[in-house]
Amino acid sequence: INNSLLSIICHQIKGDGGKLGPALDDVVSSKGEAFVLKKLANPKFNNAASAMPKYPMNKADMKAIVGFLAK
Q: In 23-39, which positions are buried (b, 16+ CB within 10 angstroms) versus exposed (e)?
């Protein structure tokens, strides 16, 4: 989850955070868990121009982030 805290710099969660990227409040319910996992693994998979960097995290970290965002 510590890496997910870095997303607050660019994304908003519950009104807090940055505005470079989209708000993440409903990302799991609107895009689906598989999309979010793929985006975390390869941020540019659906948008080559995405400013989102790739963070070093394993599958367990990614699943924890998805679980956090799904709340």
A: ebeebbeeeebeebbeb
Q: Give per-residue pLDDT as tens, 5-54.
A: 567 788 888 888 889 899 999 999 999 999 999 999 999 999 999 999 99
SS3 12: strand
Closest by CA to 10, choosing from 56, 51, 40, is 51
Strand partners, 12: 17
Reading the block at residue 53, the tokens are 């960097």
What is the residue-wise DSSP string for 29-70?
HHH-HHHHHHHHH-TTSS-TT--PPPP---HHHHHHHHHHHH
